[in-house]
Design brief:
Elements: H1 18-28, H2 44-65, E1 69-73, E2 76-81, H3 86-91, E3 95-96, H4 97-103, H5 115-120, H6 126-134, H7 138-156, E4 163-164, H8 167-183, H9 186-189, H10 192-213, H11 220-223, H12 228-260, H13 272-280, H14 287-315, H15 320-334, H16 338-342, H17 345-357, E5 363-369, E6 373-374, E7 380-381, E8 386-390, E9 399-400, E10 403-404, H18 430-447, E11 448-452, E12 460-463, E13 466-469, E14 475-479
Parallel strand pairs: 2-8
Antiparallel strand pairs: 1-2, 3-5, 4-14, 5-8, 6-7, 9-10, 11-14, 12-13
Cofactor: heme
GO molecular function: heme binding; iron ion binding; monooxygenase activity; oxidoreductase activity, acting on paired donors, with incorporation or reduction of molecular oxygen
Binding site for heme: 427
Length: 482
């Protein structure tokens, strides 16, 4: 999936100068601002309105202005475009997503403790190369199945009585297990300390970034040393570096021993440690940053999708048996392979509908204007401005002549459904993310009965542009009697 769901423009980010910045924005372009209020000297009301109801502000903006407009976020203003501009933006050479990501300002690349975002922002795009060329290969699906099966068995056991699934925790754990099996190999993936560090880092880093965003920009290079979440990030990076260094040293010894035996070929491991070494080709890089960057990208957004998808399935119990029938048929015909996952069409539809109803962000398709850009309606987007889109839409499942088409798939992208981006900046990890979610849901539904705790009503948590599954979700499970 995409790497982050809350990436904001850093222009005019200092709240103490926000009022004057807003005057500048108002005078130098013709985009109205939806949450600019009189006498809101330091934009306190604007920030509170954004955090509490960004979705409502976006809806109000399109009703009020009938076109592009600005919204003041906790990191400055951003231009929101209607979804019908998506195809035009996809083709525009002057609106660049990589330039937006590479700045690294939104997630404080270069700060100690933020090594994961530093790796993601690397101008050499090492992680993107690895994701594009190596992830979600057919051979990995069986590995996904093995680790998810072990993970749910350990978390939920064999009893046939209903019990609390601890779904918020378990959902993150399952995605962490799957991801680690590919990122660091089977052995280290089973290391519980490594698991806790990488999944914990992904969550803590987002908390640390949010905390830093509330601080005036001039204080951030210093105050990060004092903020608890930032201190936790630095501690987790230190622990991760120690464990990973041991793994790298062990591999180096194994290579040396194999090379010293005449005729021996060193074992080539199919994991991201090896792939990053191949892509960097001797160039210096930070191994721990690469691993934490991949975990950060994989765990947070993908686990949110998994958690919300199972909640939605539990809320519609009539889907469970049809889903099981489809999963069993697909696995019987194709095994745990990419073909098997592809043929789970109803499951794909459930995931896509989850993305539509509960998107991970209220906006998508972030781009940075690398020069002044004229929109189709004649308005000028100033150089350096970040733009986003009004969420995304999903038209009903496409079937042509009764045949499933790839345009319906959760990994597909169009002007109606661009949760994974569009054009050359489409999320390279979308196949990997959807394969993880499909495998996890399939394993769970085959092995366990699932339901919402009686009396529990699902809810969605919103914070600015972010949309999150209920952290207090009450999902119950019991082992099926097969």
């Amino acid at each position: 999936m995409g790497l982050a769901t809350e990436l904001y423009e850093s222009v005019y980010s200092d709240a103490w100068y926000g009022y004057f910045a807003s005057l500048f924005v108002q005078k130098n372009d013709d985009f109205p601002t939806i949450n600019f209020y009189p006498r809101d000297w330091i934009l306190k009301r604007a920030h509170e309105a954004f955090i509490a109801d960004a979705k409502g502000l976006i809806q109000e903006g399109f009703r009020k202005f009938n076109g592009p407009f600005r919204i003041i976020t906790t990191l400055g203003s951003r231009i929101i475009l209607p979804a019908e501009y998506a195809d035009w933006v996809k083709k525009s050479p002057d609106l660049d997503h990589q330039a937006f990501v590479s700045e690294g300002k939104e997630f404080f690349a270069g700060y100690p403790g933020f090594e994961g975002t530093t790796a993601v922002s690397d101008p050499h795009a090492v992680l993107i190369s690895v994701v594009k060329n190596k992830l979600a290969q057919n051979s990995q699906i069986q590995k996904f199945h093995t680790h998810v099966s072990a993970g749910v068995a350990e978390s939920w056991g064999e009893g046939n009585a209903w019990r609390d699934a601890r779904w918020t925790e378990t959902g993150v754990t399952l995605i962490g297990l799957i991801s680690a099996s590919v990122f660091v190999g089977d052995e280290l993936a089973k290391n519980t300390t490594w698991q806790k560090i990488t999944t914990g880092y992904a969550m803590t880093m987002f908390m640390a970034a949010r905390a830093l965003r509330t601080c005036p920009s001039w204080t951030r290079p210093f105050i990060h040393w004092l903020l608890p979440a930032c201190r936790t990030c630095r501690a987790e990076v230190k622990r991760a570096r120690r464990i990973l260094q041991q793994e790298l040293e062990k591999r180096a010894i194994q290579k040396k021993e194999a090379a010293s035996d005449q005729g021996q070929v060193p074992e080539k491991r199919e994991d991201a440690i090896t792939w990053v070494e191949e892509v960097t080709a001797g160039r210096a890089y930070g191994p721990v940053g690469m691993q934490l960057g991949m975990s950060m990208a994989a765990v947070v957004t993908t686990s949110e999708l998994l958690k919300q998808a199972l909640i939605n399935i539990c809320a519609h119990p009539e889907l469970v048996e049809p889903l099981r029938d489809e999963i069993e048929t697909s696995v019987r015909a194709h095994g745990w392979t990419t073909a098997g996952l592809f043929n789970m069409q109803l499951l794909d539809s459930v995931i896509t509908e989850t993305q539509r109803l509960n998107p991970l962000a209220e906006v998508n398709l972030e781009r940075k204007a690398v020069r002044d850009v004229k929109l189709p309606n004649g308005q000028i987007v100033p150089r350096g401005t970040t733009i986003s889109f009004d969420g995304y839409r999903y038209v009903k499942l496409r079937q042509e002549g009764g045949k499933w088409t790839s345009a319906s798939a959760a990994v597909s992208t169009s002007a109606d459904h661009f949760v994974f981006g569009m054009g050359k900046f489409i999320c390279p990890g979308r196949f990997f993310a959807v394969a993880e979610v499909k495998t996890a849901l399939a394993v769970i539904l085959l092995a366990y009965d699932v339901r919402l705790k009686p009396g529990y009503v699902p809810k969605i948590i919103r914070y600015g542009f972010e949309v999150m599954a209920d952290p207090g979700a009450c999902v119950e499970v019991r082992r099926r009697s097969l």
